[in-house]
């Protein structure tokens, strides 16, 4: 009797617990998307985004994660061990040409860039940062271990978190770039392994390194941040976005014709969607009316980067997208005449001056809006061996002095800290603003030079962040089925959109010593000592002795006989 | 596998290292057991007419870079110090596992070095050298710390045999591409790429290894015969006196390959065909949870009125301390100590 009661009690309990938690296990979600945008110059821009949503808030108390479904375990363990709130890492080869290609969906500077927001509970941010860079260098096969305190900065106003949260104490932010870092297959391979389907199914089959690196611009990035779990936004989920932006050149990959296809770009076609993905789509930008085949009835409009664009959508989860041949190869052809929409914000940077002692860094920011002025935040991080003279800092717009409304400057400490300069500058409409600062080049210790010092030393890109006024109303609603490329940066108001522009990195020559000089000095000194002092010493101390020359054998025998006879010897 | 040369004209050294890496991976050793050090990047170098490829045979027949390569130390990280640290295991604690040589006293280790060398030294990146004595001492440290069972050392540089002359630890076998006083020569140039693609010794070593499969019974004596003087122009040398077993009984796959345990299963896992998006969770009734928001990306008003950070107070040091001490000293000198009570 009691046994029966006990069983009943158990089943009742099960039912109630089921009512309280509708989903027993955490559900991860994976979406993949490819956007193809023909560019005005004849090049073609392809942007892959893979989004894995991890339905656990591991930073909450008492949540210990041991089961990983779609979210990669290597990154999950890194995040929980170092209490990382947001992680953004990108590897880029090439420079994004804003004036020819427009604005990218996800901007990135040349080389490697890493910026991390740590959680409030971290007590030693620098220690965590150092260990995090070492662990990431192992995961991505890159020399991220060269990131240390001499090239890390703590921006005070740029790089606000892109995810959820309200506290923004910049003591928990660290930013570093390695402009010299190269990207090659060894970085792409571990990046592909983080995807749930790997490179076996879905859009990732197109990622073949021989074609991807034969391009004008290649950028792969990993962005991890907390996002809203649902539309009410009452709890957090973690989102991993892996993005890959590539621009194929008209002449090197396109053979000079504005006629592109998936096979021409990637030497592969699409055969199936990733079975683990909830949505797998290809968007082709048809705003400028190119010829597109195979035709698709699905169209979508999206406002992205201040512009309303029309896209043809290919849904790979539907079998009829692949047609009879079971493979999807998009063909795109366009004429390319007509005006391109001029990007409203653009920046350049260069070094002026001559010689190896002094120089001047010029940063030029263009505001191409015809009648609106808007503020931009310029962040410059200059290594310590270029000693900036901040009293020579000038900001001029339209040949008049333009005083920034906020300046944050942290001077460098030799071999400890780089310079950090952040300024909030108001750009007048339709104008060019120039920021100049003079610097002096330092002479490094001879062990601090790289093995190829005559190549020069790199200075990382400047970052210009701005809320650019938009011609078209932006969408501020957060919906689950928004395409990924329009939901990367959170939109707070309709009238402007957030843009980040990176300038070129600089390559400066430092005064380089002749490294063969120690060897030359030793040789020269030893020769002088040996020849000059040595011969003098020999003259003074050498004694001479008469030395009997050795006689040939016949004469020696004759001498032997003569000694026996007692007769004088031969010489 | 270590390549120590920088610059585009040393393409062949990177191709050498990658071809050994490729053979070793093909014969079964996984990436976690390989430490690959390449001093410069040839595949994605701007001078490479075919990016993301490194060829070993002319007319671009064989791409030894491939699609699945993991370089552990690259660029400026390839230094003598890092190489010796990897061998002896004295790495900083935050070094990731892929950059460590995690060997114990049951491991057979294969070390392959290539680059420019001379009598008794090997040049690293045109700025430093490793001498044969340092290498011999490193191996002795490894022996004393029981970091290897048997070690095969292959070197492809000019006068390579000088590098193994000074070894004195047991269970070491060494191969070099040339004797002391001889230069190792490069094999073929490719006119499209514009540089020499491989060195002769490693080229014939690669050809030999392409015929070895994981179950092959080829032994070390076959390896010693690779690249005789007729093909290589230089005389390859080897050293087996420190090795305890007879080289004829040592299989090549002892060093170049490995056998991994594979369990074959006949079960299949069904992936659910349609994954529904996340179930909308309704907030629990009793608690009022406020919705979370995203942060403003460029809060202009907040930035302008940002208060400067309160720096932690440090006691004055250096110049300021000296200045104040001087002032106080002068003060008390002129006015005397008894006036102190007027101050306090």
Explain how this protein is built.
The complex is a heterodimer of chains A (571) and B (344). Chain A has 571 residues and is α+β, with helices and mostly antiparallel strands. In chain A, 18% of the residues lie in helices and 33% in strands. Chain A contains 9 helices and 26 strands. Chain A has helices at residues 2-20, 73-81, 98-101, 125-140, 185-193, 209-212, 262-266, 517-541, 553-565, and strands at residues 29-38, 44-54, 84-93, 111-118, 152-153, 173-178, 217-228, 236-248, 259-261, 279-285, 291-293, 299-304, 307-315, 331-333, 345-352, 358-367, 374-382, 386-397, 400-401, 406-410, 419-427, 431-441, 457-459, 463-469, 496-502, 506-508. The N and C termini of chain B lie far apart (74 Å). The radius of gyration of chain B is 31 Å and the shape is elongated. In chain B, the strands form 2 sheets. Chain B has a 7-stranded mixed sheet. Chain B has helices at 11-26, 80-88, 132-144, 200-210, 220-224, 229-232, 253-256, 300-304, 319-335, 340-343, and strands spanning 2-3, 37-38, 73-74, 108-114, 116-118, 121-124, 128-131, 150-156, 172-176, 237-239. With 344 residues, chain B is an alpha/beta fold. Chain B has 10 helices and 10 strands. The model of chain B is unreliable at 274-287 (pLDDT under 50). The interface between A and B is large, with 73 and 57 residues.
